[in-house]
Specification:
6-stranded antiparallel beta barrel, single chain, 21% helix, alpha+beta, 2 domains, 6 helices, 24 strands
């Protein structure tokens, strides 16, 4: 077999004050690389894929910071002997998939509806299972015990007291305006009326969630104030005054909470799990150790998950880059590199590996790879030829 000979052209952007130059190297009659060029290459920092934090990679100026040594190595494809050279199109992408993130079905603080009892409930019988979706007005639980009878009586008495206090307030307001009573007396009447009004409103809000069946003594039925997902906990018999009877998660409040590494928060636009793809609604600006908290948009019909369910979701990052076969990427001088077809030559182009997806890499590159073709077969063999390892 004849020896494959190639011509490698090193073209570099020189340091300040140096002129652009090139030299041709052939493995059969090697010509030394110019000293100034070798020194410049030695001084360049090698920043292999994965060393840069993702946040920096997404915000960096590609023209300045990508690990690209501005040289090209061009073996003439006709001189590569019987190597099987096949090429793959470079695909331009506007987003890529990152490493999976831990997610949990939940809701943001303040978005749930907490149903709290103003009186102790001796017994509660839930009519709906935890996690079940309910409609507004649907019966949720039956509250029983003597305290329920006391609440009904207290509500009616408070309603009557408020009516009397309101009448007194209105009649004394005219007297105060006519200076028939002093300011101190008027303040006393006003405060008593307003305090009673607040007390009644507190009771009324809870009373509106209850249905009374006079045929059943000392019991009331709790109904849902809105549609959503029901959750509740009952660790001990009965529920004390001021404690939560149930929690209702409105449909538009059910989201995924994700833990995002600090280096992976920039450019994150969506979360994906199968057919479920949700936009990222918010990312916290306060770190919790090495992570920040993020929230998705509310779950849609394509997302059949449960509150409290934990899973791994794939993050989608907004970024203008390229998609190339994994087989097309190799290490050259410590930098991930592809061989770009340029006429009858192959040109080495440094890339930044962003993520892997099956048989492909998502990469960033200072050069414009759009509509280009990269070598995707016999890459290791060509790399060996470039290193002068070709033989008969």
């Amino acid at each position: 077999m004849r020896r494959a000979t190639i011509g490698c052209v090193f073209v570099g952007s020189m340091l300040a004050g140096q002129s652009m130059a090139a030299t041709v190297w052939n493995p059969s009659t090697p010509t030394p690389v110019p000293a100034y060029l070798a020194a410049a290459l030695d001084r360049e920092p090698e920043r292999a894929a994965g060393q840069l934090p993702l946040a920096d990679r997404l915000s960096l100026d590609l023209q300045a910071d990508l690990p690209a040594r501005a040289f090209s190595v061009g073996p003439e494809t006709a001189d590569l002997g019987s190597l099987d050279l096949r090429y793959s199109d470079v695909e331009s992408i506007d987003r890529y998939r990152g490493r999976p993130l831990a997610a949990e079905g939940s809701f943001r603080q303040g978005e749930g509806i907490s149903l709290v009892t103003p009186h102790r409930v001796q017994q509660i019988t839930y009519l709906v299972s935890r996690g079940e979706r309910v409609e507004a007005g649907q019966s949720l639980a039956v509250l029983s015990g003597p305290e329920i009878h006391h609440f009904k009586t207290e509500f009616e008495v408070t309603q009557q007291r408020l009516a009397m206090a309101k009448k007194r307030y209105q009649s004394n307001r005219k007297l105060y305006q006519n200076k028939a009573i002093d300011e101190g007396r008027w303040m006393e009447i006003s405060e008593a009326y307003l305090d009673l009004q607040l007390e009644f409103e507190h009771m009324r809000h809870f009373r509106e969630l209850l249905i009374v069946d006079d045929r059943i003594k000392d019991s009331m039925t709790l109904v849902a104030p809105a549609a959503g997902i029901l959750s509740y906990h009952q660790d001990t018999p009965g529920i004390a005054s001021g404690e939560e009877l149930a929690l209702l998660i409105p449909e538009q409040a059910f989201r995924f909470k994700v833990s995002i590494p600090l280096a992976g928060r920039s450019g994150l636009v969506a979360l994906e799990s199968g057919e479920c793809v949700l936009k990222v609604d918010s990312i916290s600006g306060i770190a919790d150790g090495f992570f920040v908290e993020g929230w998705s948009a509310p779950l849609d019909d394509n997302c059949s998950y449960l509150p409290g369910q934990r899973l791994m979701m794939t993050p989608l990052y907004q970024f203008a880059g390229y998609r190339v076969p994994r087989s097309a990427v190799f290490q050259w001088e410590g930098v991930p590199t592809v061989l770009l077809r340029s006429g009858q030559q192959l040109e080495t182009v440094a890339v930044e590996l962003l993520s892997s997806d099956g048989h492909y890499y998502a990469v960033a590159c200072a050069a414009d790879l759009s509509a280009g073709e990269v070598l995707s077969t016999s890459v290791s063999a060509v790399q060996g030829v470039l290193m002068g390892l070709g033989g008969e």
